[in-house]
């Protein structure tokens, strides 16, 4: 219960009586009117004055301006903590206004961010009053995600996601979107794509199409893969022979981007993996970068060399 209500002290703080109206306050004072006047926030802040400074930040929750404190809080009492009108668990309170975010509960095709179902719901990531960061976020960029993902996170199907603080360790090649903001590739609330991705990211041996790897082509030009000869679309070429095209689209094996590359970070240049996946196996892969090209040895083939300026003649076969 709100302490004034619990103490049955309605008139000294929030509501006025005839005596108060006639003697103590000017007519335009918010405490003079029984319905708290047109600016009930002023009434709340007459006691909760710490909030007027603590939450005076660049971005203010529009609910406070449009519906006042009473949009979310009950002024007398509530069965929910902090006298909220409904619990914050499962985003219940937030969804009374943000109904466009409610589809994760009703559409079985949508995967939702599991943190929404944890104790504080949306407030795990958002400040409900104000913030200096857009969307009322608690932290900026990947710092917010690393509040949870700095250690392994268990999923409902028994897997354990990586501790992504290790992905940002020194000496590793980091995919630029990871270094900046995870939202470059992931949706923070829900998605129809696996792993809350913003677009398709095909399996390792899916038949290639631009649609299958739409996520990669959000930033990278599709010519990285689609053209057989190029002098500019990719640096992974032997002279003008496009080795991305050869590996991904030019052979029946249809290797996907994730077959050879790590998506977050790698200890190797070009985000190259130590092992390439094949069925249930992890096959060794050794890559070395040179000034104008590089070399690669995998379980699929022996040493192969490429050079952009002086094309290398590799032996045929494995």
Question: Secondary structure elements and their pairing?
Answer:
Blueprint: H1 3-6, H2 10-13, H3 18-23, H4 40-45, H5 49-54, E1 59-60, H6 62-67, H7 103-106, E2 111-112, E3 130-131, H8 142-149, E4 153-154, E5 160-161, E6 173-174, H9 176-180, E7 190-191, H10 223-226, E8 237-238, E9 241-242, H11 243-249, H12 257-260, E10 265-266, E11 275-278, E12 281-290, E13 293-298, E14 304-307
Antiparallel strand pairs: 1-3, 2-7, 4-5, 6-10, 8-9, 11-12, 12-13, 13-14
Protein model, in words:
This protein starts with a helix and ends in an 11-residue tail after the last strand. It is elongated. The mean pLDDT is about 85. It has a domain at about 200-318. The strands form 6 sheets. The chain has a 4-stranded antiparallel β-sheet with strand order 11-12-13-14, with no helix packed on it. Strands 1-3 form a two-stranded antiparallel sheet. By secondary structure, the chain is an alpha+beta fold. It has helices spanning about 5, 10-15, 20-25, 40-45, 50-55, 60-65, 105, 140-150, 175-180, 225, 245-250, 255-260; strands at about 60, 110, 130, 155, 160, 175, 190, 235-240, 240, 265, 275-280, 280-290, 295-300, 305. The relative contact order is 0.06. Helices cover about 20% and strands about 15% of the residues.
Mean pLDDT: 85
Strand element count: 14
The end-to-end span amounts to 76 Å
Strand content: 5-15%
Structural class: alpha+beta
Summarize the structure.
By secondary structure, this protein is an alpha+beta fold. The chain has helices spanning 3-6, 10-13, 18-23, 40-45, 49-54, 62-67, 103-106, 142-149, 176-180, 223-226, 243-249, 257-260, and strands at residues 59-60, 111-112, 130-131, 153-154, 160-161, 173-174, 190-191, 237-238, 241-242, 265-266, 275-278, 281-290, 293-298, 304-307.
């Amino acid at each position: 219960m709100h302490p004034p209500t619990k103490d049955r002290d309605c008139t000294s703080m929030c509501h006025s009586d005839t005596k108060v109206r006639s003697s103590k306050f000017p007519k335009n004072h918010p405490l003079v009117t029984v319905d708290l006047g047109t600016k009930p926030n002023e009434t709340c802040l007459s006691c909760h004055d710490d909030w007027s400074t603590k939450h005076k930040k660049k971005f203010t929750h529009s609910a406070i301006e449009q519906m006042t404190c009473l949009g979310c809080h009950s002024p007398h009492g509530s069965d929910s903590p902090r006298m909220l009108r409904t619990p914050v668990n499962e985003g219940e309170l937030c969804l009374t206004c943000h109904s466009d975010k409610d589809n994760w509960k009703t559409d079985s095709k949508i995967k939702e961010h599991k943190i929404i179902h944890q104790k504080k719901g949306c407030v795990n990531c958002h400040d409900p009053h104000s913030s200096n960061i857009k969307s009322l976020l608690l932290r900026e960029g990947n710092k917010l995600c690393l509040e949870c993902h700095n250690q392994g996170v268990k999923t409902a199907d028994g897997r354990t996601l990586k501790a992504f603080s290790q992905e940002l360790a020194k000496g590793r090649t980091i995919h630029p979107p990871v270094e900046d903001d995870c939202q470059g590739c992931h949706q923070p609330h829900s998605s129809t794509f696996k792993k809350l991705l913003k677009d398709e990211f095909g399996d390792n041996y899916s038949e290639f199409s631009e649609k299958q790897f739409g996520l990669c082509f959000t930033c990278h030009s599709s010519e990285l893969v689609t053209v057989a000869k190029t002098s500019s679309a990719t640096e992974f070429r032997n002279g003008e022979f496009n080795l991305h095209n050869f590996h991904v689209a030019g052979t029946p094996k249809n290797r996907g981007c994730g077959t050879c590359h790590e998506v977050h970070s790698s200890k190797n240049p070009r985000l190259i993996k130590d092992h390439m996946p094949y069925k249930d196996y992890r096959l060794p892969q050794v890559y070395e970068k040179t000034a104008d090209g590089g070399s690669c040895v995998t379980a699929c083939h022996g040493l192969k060399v490429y050079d952009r300026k002086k094309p290398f003649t590799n032996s045929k076969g494995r």
